[in-house]
């Protein structure tokens, strides 16, 4: 009899652990659902911002015949970035650049030409920029907003 009582106690103990585990799983599920909803809202906000910046840039680029569909890829070669800088500043960039860049080096040079123009002619202070031309393009684009 004692062994059946001990077996009954173990069963109650196991049931208690199972309930506790289920409560923890429910809390964890609610927390992860909240986090994923927050991440989805953040991703949607970023997409809205990207579309708004694309429309804004396209409005200024209309005269040059260029159009931006994706900020990272279309500004990454530096050509649209240079044309946008010229349109916003009302001045031509005096330095030569690659109108049809084919290599990463040429794209990086174009973005660098644009950033130098912003620093030297437009007096936009740019610090702590890494070597990635995607980052450079994004930073230069944000600098344009300060020109307005």
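-> sequence recovered:
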């Amino acid at each position: 009899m004692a062994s059946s009582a001990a077996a009954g106690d173990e069963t109650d103990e196991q049931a208690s652990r199972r309930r506790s585990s289920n409560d923890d799983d429910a809390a964890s599920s609610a927390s992860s659902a909240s986090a994923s909803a927050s991440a989805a809202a953040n991703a949607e906000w970023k997409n809205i911002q990207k579309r708004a910046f694309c429309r804004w840039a396209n409005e200024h680029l209309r005269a040059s015949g260029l159009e931006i569909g994706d900020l990272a890829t279309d500004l990454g070669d530096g050509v649209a970035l240079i044309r946008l800088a010229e349109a916003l500043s009302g001045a031509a960039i005096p330095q030569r650049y690659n109108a049809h860049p084919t290599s990463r080096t040429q794209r990086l040079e174009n973005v660098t030409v644009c950033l130098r123009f912003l620093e030297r002619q437009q007096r936009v202070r740019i610090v702590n920029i890494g070597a990635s031309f995607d980052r450079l393009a994004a930073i230069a684009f944000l600098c344009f907003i300060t020109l307005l």
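The domain at 2-147 is CATH 1.10.418.10 (Actin-binding Protein, T-fimbrin; domain 1).
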